[in-house]
Amino acid sequence: MREAERLAQRFHEVYEELAPTYGYETREASRKPWAQVPEKNRRLMIAVCEVLLAELATAQVGGGQ
Fold first, then answer.
1. 12 within 8 A of 37, measured Cβ to Cβ
2. Is-above-0.90 flag for pTM?
3. How far apart are CA 12 and CA 57, in angstroms?
4. How confident is the model over 13-51, as pLDDT tens digits?
């Protein structure tokens, strides 16, 4: 599993775990384990993580934030 996909999966899992602590509850219809998240949604979350990881890597190499 690629790093971006692992990050997207963990983000999804932790988000679902923490949501109630912050007074938010995902709709039952959309609350799914990672393996059951629709493919298009998973690909989008993975793509977002790829961009963010690339930005973080560039910032670290360039001495940015």
1. yes
2. no
3. 22
4. 999 999 999 999 888 877 899 999 999 999 999 999 999
